[in-house]
Amino acid sequence: MNKDWINQAMERWSAISSKLEAEPSQGFERMGTIPLKLRPPLVDTLDCATMDPYREANRRLWEAWAAIHPRAEFYRVEDFKRGRDPLKPFEVEELGDVAGQTLLHLQCHFGRDTLAWARRLRAGLALRSSSGSRGTRAEPRDSSGMFGGRAPGLGTILVVILVVLAACGQNTSPPGGPHVVATLHVGATPGVPVVGGGFVWVPNSAEGTVSKIDPRADRVLDTIRVGDPAQLRQRGCLAPDIHAVPVGSFGVRLCDVPSALAYGAGSLWAAKGDGPAIVRIDPGSDQVLATIPFAGQPFALAFGPSGLWVADWLNDSLSQVDPQQNRVVATHAGFGGGPASLLVTSDAVWVSDSQADQLLRVDPHSLGVVARIPVGRLPLALAYLGGAVWVRNEKGSSVDRIDPAHNAVVSRIPVGFFLGRDGQDGIGVTSHGLWVGGLDLQLIDPARARVSARVPLPAVAVAGDGKTSLWTSNLAGTVSHVVTAP
Q: Which residues pair with 341 in a beta bridge?
C-alpha cells in the first residue's frame, strides 16, 4: 500500500462513479473534489408500517454495539477517564458554556459523551434508562469510574440514555433445534471462519494471526502468526476517524491481516496485505510452508478444482495461484466496481462485484467474464448448494439464488439485516440448508426458498461443515459453535 488510505478510498469511489451508469433517481454528493455515487435513501421507499422492523433492528444493533464499544480502542475510554475530552469542537461551539445549566442529552450509545457533557456542566449525574429500571432516577454519583467514583460537581443533569439491554429476538426453531454448544475467545477482530482439514480456522484480522480450533473438543489449539497489521497502519491504511469512511466502500478493512482464509490442496491459505503475499500453512504442524508474493492487496480467497483464486478489491483484479508451483500464474484486471468475494465451482469462478450490484461468472481458463448477472444491493457472501449459486446482498437484506444454466436470478429471499464490518460476511452450509448471520442466525430452506428458522444469536459471519455444525464469528471478539438439529 503505497498511498494513504484516503487517496485510495477516493480513487476507488471515483472509479466506481465513472464506471457505473447513474440512475435517474440517484444523486451525487461531493467530498472534496471527488464525486461520490450515492444510492437513494432506503427510507424513501418505506411507509410507517414497514419502518417498525427497521427501527427494531437498529435498536438491537446498537444494543449489541453498546456492550462492545467501551472496550474498543477507537473510543479511548481509558484516556477519557484520565481527562481526555471526546466532544467535537463544533459541538462545544454550538452550545457554548453550559456550566450550571440543565441538559437533556438524547444518548444512543454507551454514555461516554453524556459524561463528557456532565464534566462541562460541573453537575451531578442523574440517569434515566429506557429499559430495565424504566422511570427510575440514579443517585447523583458516578459508577462508571470516569470521574474517579465521585460526583462531578453540584446540581443535576438529566440524562435520557436511549440504549436498551434486552434482546428481542424470537427463536422460531423447533425444540431441540440449533443451539450453541461452545463460545471461544480468539484473537482481535475475528473474520470469516473456514472449516477444513478437520479443524476450524479463524482469521484474527486486527493482530495478524489465525486461531486453530479443534471442533471436537471445542478449544483453541494454536495461534499462528502470519503477518503484522501494524506495518499497514504505519503506511497509512487506518482512517483517522472510522466514521469518515464511506459505508460500502470496504475501506474499514484495508488494515486487516489476514484479510481472508481458504482451505484446499491439504493446506490452509491466508491473505496478508503487509507483504503483500499469500501464505501457505501446513494444518498439521501449523508451520508456514510457502510465502507467495502478490502484486496488489489480497482481499478475498477461494479454493476449488482450478486452484486458489485471489480477489484484489482495491485494484479490480482476479488472480490464480497454482498450488503445485506455489506462485501466481495468471491475473486479470478490470472487474468493474471491485471483486469482493469469490466462489469456485467445477467450471467457473464466481465473483461478487459488490459496488456494481453484479455477480460475475468468470471462465477459469481464460479469466474472461462469461456473464454479468444483476443481483441485489451490495452482493458479497457466496455459497453453492443444490446446483445453485447463492449470494447475500448486504444492503438489499436478501439472498439471491442463481441458476448457473441460465446465469440468472431465479428467486430472491428476504433475510434480516447484515451485522458487522463492511466487506466481511460468510454463508454457512449444513445438511439443513444455508445459514446467514445478522441480529439473528437464519436458516434458508433451499427447496422452499424461504427462511425456515431463526435463532436469536447475533453473528457477523457464518461457516458450516456441510453436516450439522456451524461456526459464527461475533461482535464481541468470540467464535461460537452451533450444533443444528440431527
A: 352
Nearest to 36 by CA among 223, 249, 236, 190: 249
Alpha-carbon distances of 193 from 74, 221, 428, rounded to whole Å: 24, 15, 10
In tens, the pLDDT along 430-458 reads 999 999 999 899 999 999 999 999 998 88
In the predicted structure, residue 203 carries a pLDDT above the cut 50: yes
Show the CA angle centred on residue 62, arms to residues 247 and 200, nearest 5°: 75
DSSP state of 356: G
In a domain, 173, yes or no: no
Alpha-helical (H) ranges within 20-179 are 48-66, 77-81, 89-95, 112-121
CB atoms within 10 A of CB 431: 12
Q: Tell me how far apart the alpha carbons of residues 315 and 144 are, in angstroms, rounded to a whole number.
A: 45
Residue 190's domain comprises 179-483
Same structural domain, 74 and 208 = no
Segment holding 15, helix H or strand E: helix 5-19
- List C-alpha distances in Å: 211 to 69, 221, 287, 465: 23, 8, 13, 17
Q: Does one domain contain both 128 and 191?
A: no
**365 in any annotated domain:** yes
Last residue of a domain, one of 126, 161, 196: 161
Contact 201, 224 (CB under 8 A): no
